[in-house]
Structure formats: structure tokens, C-alpha cells
Amino acid sequence: MHIIIVGSGRTGKHIIEAALNDRQDVYVIEKDKEAANWVATNFDCVVIHGDATRCEILKEAKAEKADAIIVTTHDDAVNALVILLAKDLGIKRLVSSVNNDDLLPVFEQLGIDTVESPHRLNGRYLYRAVQGPNVKEFLDLGDGFELLEIIVEHQSSIANKLIKDLNKEKILPTDTLINLIKRNNQIIIPEGETRIFVNDIVVVLSRKNQVSAISKVFGAASLLN
């Protein structure tokens, strides 16, 4: 997957690291020369020293072929302009941090898939927005495992199925366990005869490298392979 990451501050570095660990094709655009040199020295990715609000810089990062862009600068005006340019260039998934919470509705009106405030997320959360757009929350448990809170979409292959059938038909990836279901403000501890419905919010224990596969099973059109 071809991902463009704009900005290499604290959040951007976490995203770069997470994407490279998943062996994605990463292009980083960084306006500050010293920061760009640091990324080029410490990460195995393409680094472009330039202003992402300039269309030619986005094109240098092969925006026309990009599957996703994640914008993480500290300037909301810059973030919004980059997202608009990326959208015009046809990038499929648009993810941006928003520094001023009052601007969240404005960014949502731009048609951004995921808008998050850096005050309540980190870089890995933003990267998860690309991996699994139906993943609401996640908790890193260490040792290669994490808990995901994920929505069952209409096109999900597990919708209307019993838990026991998921295991029997091997629908879920290996080392994946459904721990809890939230439905209409109720908490359900799943058993074999528990049925999963569309719009259920399911808490899943899984390996970190299974997020894209799980997201797809739950019905998201994930872009990551």
C-alpha cells in the first residue's frame, strides 16, 4: 500500500514507524529540512523536503497512485489545504489530525474519512484509521497483541452468524478472539449461541498484524493488503 505522511513530528514519527513495520510503501513530506534529514537517516522510506500545500510536491510523492494520506502538521489551515489537494488528486483515504477541536465539524465537511484531535490520540491510532476504518478504538497489550473495538458493517461476512459458526467456518483470522459485544447500550458476554448483528460494536483480541484482515471480515473496504 502506498501511504503519504505529511509532517514528521511526534505523531508523524509514530505513524511512519507503524507503517514501515507493516511493510507499506511510505512517502514522507516534511517542510523542515533538518527534520526531513532526520527521517531520511532513521527510517527506510522516501522523504521529500518540501511544502505539501504545493501540488507538485504531492505529485512528487506519487499522489496519483497513493492509497491514503495522513496529515499531521500543527497548522490546521495547512492540514485542510493538503487534504483538499489530495482529494482533488484522487487519493482514496484521507486522514487528518485537527489541533483545534472547534474545527472538527469543518474538517468533517471536507469529506475526510477520519478526523482526529491529537489531544486524544497518538500516531498509531491515526495509522489504524487507514488500516481499519471501522476500528473505533484500540489498546496495545504488548507482546504483539491488542484489543480492537470494531463495528459490524452491513457487508460483513460475520453479520447474523453465531459465534460458534465463526470458529467452525474459520472466518476470523488465527489468534483472534471476540471478548465482548456492545448492542443498544447493553454489554453482552458472547457464548457459542450468541448471534452477531449489523451495527454491533465488538471488542476483539488479535495480533497487531491481523488488523486489516479483521477489519475486512467486519465489512470495511480496507486498503491495506
TrEMBL record:
<dbReference type="InterPro" id="IPR006037">
    <property type="entry name" value="RCK_C"/>
</dbReference>
<dbReference type="GO" id="GO:0015079">
    <property type="term" value="F:potassium ion transmembrane transporter activity"/>
</dbReference>
<keyword id="KW-0520">NAD</keyword>
<feature type="domain" description="RCK N-terminal">
    <location>
        <begin position="1"/>
        <end position="116"/>
    </location>
</feature>
<dbReference type="InterPro" id="IPR003148">
    <property type="entry name" value="RCK_N"/>
</dbReference>
<dbReference type="GO" id="GO:0005886">
    <property type="term" value="C:plasma membrane"/>
</dbReference>
<protein>
    <recommendedName>
        <fullName>Trk system potassium uptake protein TrkA</fullName>
    </recommendedName>
</protein>
<dbReference type="InterPro" id="IPR006036">
    <property type="entry name" value="K_uptake_TrkA"/>
</dbReference>
<dbReference type="InterPro" id="IPR050721">
    <property type="entry name" value="Trk_Ktr_HKT_K-transport"/>
</dbReference>
<dbReference type="InterPro" id="IPR036291">
    <property type="entry name" value="NAD(P)-bd_dom_sf"/>
</dbReference>
<keyword id="KW-0813">Transport</keyword>
<keyword id="KW-0630">Potassium</keyword>
<keyword id="KW-0406">Ion transport</keyword>
<keyword id="KW-0633">Potassium transport</keyword>
<dbReference type="Pfam" id="PF02080">
    <property type="entry name" value="TrkA_C"/>
</dbReference>
<feature type="domain" description="RCK C-terminal">
    <location>
        <begin position="133"/>
        <end position="220"/>
    </location>
</feature>
<dbReference type="Pfam" id="PF02254">
    <property type="entry name" value="TrkA_N"/>
</dbReference>
<dbReference type="InterPro" id="IPR036721">
    <property type="entry name" value="RCK_C_sf"/>
</dbReference>
